[in-house]
Design goal:
This protein is an alpha/beta fold and 261 residues long. The protein folds into two domains: 209 residues, Rossmann fold (3-Layer(aba) Sandwich), CATH 3.40.50; 39 residues, no CATH class. Strands 3-2-1-4-5-6-7 form a seven-stranded parallel sheet, sandwiched between helices. It starts with 6 loop residues before the first strand and ends in a 7-residue tail after the last strand.
Length: 261
């Protein structure tokens, strides 16, 4: 129970990476505020599942993280429910692909707002209380695309590079306070977002979904294996422990060797 007595907000946590991290935190005893979208029945099932892992408190707020007022409201709700927010995981993200010259401006704005501006909004909202208690963990889920680029992903790559820059500044602004800020940079994780890319590749090339997944992995990841939400959850838990108290401002790849090339 490494996180007993701690509370966490995890954005984009009704599926994929975010849910994997929320589950990992709950197993270690943390209270969790889930965030995302989905049918109410599904959300209630997810809440019950996460709560059953340790009996910790689990709440849900369907805030739109691209809006500053929603982000501030989510922090306020978590603080009221749990008494404080010790850990913030900025995970929510969306994707759109097109060449730069054909990239719709409204899609650019949406991706940047959700993937980058939300990290600023939530960090700004939660830091005063973390600094006041002289303990806090901000974990930003960036991407291998925060370190390297791929074609037709202008907004996503720009936003994720921005997340790494913001992580470093947050670390410097909080150095020595007991608050840390770090980024995790996953490679391909078989989330609903990545599954859409696998499906698109399969349709475009007339491949089975299994062959499309192998082709997608082979292009970038020497391991040719997906990263799992459980593995990312384990790394996120480590960043919240005393062992990581002097780890701040880092970008930690978990990408099967993608960015080692």
């Amino acid at each position: 129970m490494l996180l007993k007595g701690k509370s966490a907000i995890v954005t984009g946590s009704t599926s994929g990476i975010g849910l994997g991290i929320a589950r990992a935190f709950a197993k270690e005893g943390a209270d969790i505020l889930l965030n995302g979208f989905g049918p109410q029945d599904d959300i209630e099932t997810i809440k019950a599942d996460v709560r059953a892992l340790s009996g910790a408190k689990v709440e849900f707020v369907g805030a739109d993280v691209s809006k500053e007022d929603d982000c501030a409201g989510m922090v306020a709700t978590a603080t009221q429910a749990f008494g404080k927010v010790d850990i913030l995981v900025n995970n929510a993200g969306i994707q759109f692909t097109a060449p730069v010259h054909a990239f719709p401006t409204e899609k650019w704005n949406a991706v940047v707002a959700t993937n980058l501006s939300s990290v600023f909004y939530l960090s700004k909202a939660v830091l005063p209380q973390m600094l006041g208690r002289r303990w806090g963990r901000i974990i930003n889920i960036a991407s291998a695309h925060g370190m390297v680029a791929s074609k037709e992903k202008a907004a996503y790559v720009a936003a994720k590079h921005g997340v790494l820059g913001l992580t470093k500044v947050t670390a410097l602004d909080t150095a020595g306070t007991g608050v840390t800020a770090n980024a995790i940079c996953p490679g391909w994780v078989l989330t609903p977002l990545v599954q859409k890319q696998v499906d698109a590749l399969a349709e475009r090339k007339g491949l089975s979904k299994e062959d499309a997944a192998v082709e997608l992995l082979s292009e970038k990841m020497p391991s040719k294996q997906f990263v799992t939400p459980e593995q990312l959850g384990g790394l996120a838990v480590f960043l919240c422990t005393d062992a990581a108290a002097q780890m701040t401002g880092t970008a930690l790849p978990m990408d099967g060797g993608w960015t080692a090339q």
